[in-house]
């Protein structure tokens, strides 16, 4: 696996591989099994796997954790190589944003609920950097995780709206043994917060079980149940619990026959964790 920092080097290395199927896995690094599952999926379906590691300042709001976001490029290089990546692109901020970006990509509508309302401007930063990565790498396939379900829905729509010639693949959420969704931000949690954070998965799973047994008549009851479960944990502060149609993220009027996304964002101290499940 080669590591490059320049856009020109990525283009140069891929020039002789254009006849091969190229897969791109965009990340912010500090890799864990969730990221590695995307690399392995890309490796199984593509001949060349490009991994990007870039903590994108454009998607962080003022007061968010940009400066303390965990970073360990040497370890990322090691584990990405073992998982099968062929090229690791780790640009500097100056390389990706030589000028303050006057041009940005904005997906409307889908970016309004859930994390879009808690993190204003966040998805504009995500779609702008992913559009740039798509132009730099020009992959055949691009890989995302279901843990960031709204992000996947937003990028899928951008790909369709802007006719990017890429097939998008969304991979299942990889969890710790006790159900907590893997996330680079889990490293921020104190042992007590870490143990209480399992409530995200437990409340979603318990809710799903009851839903399958026919317990709920409306989405408000689902939200109340999950909120009550989360509030049993003294360190948890709810940002949102929402039930929406999936993948259009529209409000739910009729539960029967709908595909739902049940999504939560919860603070433990300063750490904001998200999780979701799709209920069919
Ligand atoms: N547990 C997971 N299972 C599957 N995919 C994941 C998981 N965690 C992250 N991903 C995916 O990896 C890609 C890169 O995500 P990112 O680098 O932000 O990691 P993260 O662990 O989600 O970090 P953060 O703490 O910022 O949420 C995204 O497509 C994301 O959905
Ligand atoms: C897609 C992404 C790499 C864009 O910076 C980021 O939002 C992430 O890691 O999910
Ligand atoms: N995993 C999404 C990137 C972010 O939280 O900024």
What does this structure look like?
One of its GO terms (cellular component) is cytosol. Its main location: cytoplasm. It is found in: Cytoplasm. The protein has a six-stranded parallel β-sheet, sandwiched between helices. A three-stranded antiparallel β-sheet has the order 7-8-9, with helices on one face. It is built from ten helices and nine strands. By secondary structure, the chain is an alpha/beta fold. The longest helix has 16 residues. Helix content is 36%, strand content 20%. Helix 6 crosses helix 7 and helix 9 runs antiparallel to helix 10. It has two domains: 170 residues, HUPs (Rossmann fold, 3-Layer(aba) Sandwich), CATH 3.40.50; 94 residues, 2-Layer Sandwich (Pantoate--beta-alanine Ligase, Chain: A,domain 2). Helix 2 links the parallel strand 2 and strand 3. The site of pantoate has 10 residues, from strand 2 and helix 6.
Describe the structure in brief.
With 280 residues, the protein is α/β, with parallel strands linked by helices.
Q: How are the SSEs ordered, and which strands pair?
A:
Blueprint: E1 2-4, H1 7-15, E2 22-27, H2 33-45, E3 48-53, H3 73-83, E4 87-89, H4 93-96, H5 115-118, H6 122-137, E5 141-145, H7 149-161, E6 167-171, H8 191-196, H9 199-212, H10 219-230, E7 236-245, E8 260-268, E9 271-279
Parallel strand pairs: 1-4, 2-3, 2-5, 3-4, 5-6
Antiparallel strand pairs: 7-8, 8-9
Helix pairs in contact: 6-7, 9-10
The chain binds adenosine-5'-triphosphate, pantoate (PAF) and beta-alanine.
Adenosine-5'-triphosphate (ATP) binds near residues 27, 37, 173 and 183.
């Amino acid at each position: 696996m080669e590591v490059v920092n320049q856009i020109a080097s990525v283009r140069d290395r891929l020039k002789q591989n254009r006849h091969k199927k190229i897969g791109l896995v965009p990340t912010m690094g500090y890799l864990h099994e969730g990221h590695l599952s995307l690399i392995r999926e890309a490796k199984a379906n593509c001949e060349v796997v490009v991994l990007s590691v870039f903590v994108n300042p454009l998607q962080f709001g003022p007061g968010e954790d940009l400066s303390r976001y965990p970073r360990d490029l040497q370890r990322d290089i090691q584990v990405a190589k073992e998982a099968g990546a062929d090229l690791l692109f780790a640009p500097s901020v100056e390389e990706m944003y030589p000028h303050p970006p006057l041009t940005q990509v904005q997906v409307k509508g889908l970016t309004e609920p859930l994390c879009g309302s808690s993190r204003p401007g966040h998805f504009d930063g995500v779609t702008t950097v992913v559009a740039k990565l798509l132009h730099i790498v020009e992959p055949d396939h691009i890989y995302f995780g279901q843990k960031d379900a709204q992000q996947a829905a937003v990028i899928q729509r951008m790909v369709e709206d802007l006719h990017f010639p890429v097939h998008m693949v969304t991979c299942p959420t990889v969890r710790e043994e006790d159900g907590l969704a893997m996330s680079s931000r889990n490293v921020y949690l104190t042992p007590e917060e870490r143990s209480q954070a399992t409530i995200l998965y437990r409340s979603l799973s318990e809710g799903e079980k009851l839903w399958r047994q026919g317990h709920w008549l409306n989405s408000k009851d689902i939200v109340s149940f999950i909120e009550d479960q989360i509030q049993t944990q003294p360190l948890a502060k709810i940002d949102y619990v929402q039930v929406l149609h999936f993948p259009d993220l529209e409000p739910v009027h009729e539960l029967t026959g709908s595909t739902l996304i049940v999504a939560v964002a919860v603070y433990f101290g300063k750490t904001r964790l998200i999780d979701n499940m799709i209920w069919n």
